[in-house]
Amino acid sequence: MNLLFNWLFVIAYFSVFFLGLFGCFYLANNYWSARTVTGNTVFTKRALTLKAVATASLALCAIGGLFQAMVGV
Length: 73
Fold this sequence. Notes:
Blueprint: H1 2-34, H2 42-71
């Protein structure tokens, strides 16, 4: 029974992780594509670019953390 719970927790952890990773890349894509809307000021475009880069870098750091966890660092 203990082994079953261990596998269930691992599956739950990875499902939440990949759902969050998908959400980060989805938001970054939305922010990046919203920059091209006509009528945006320079400041709005700059803010959307910053949001897109920050969200994508958060997702990339999460992938790096997953690789470090697999290596055992």
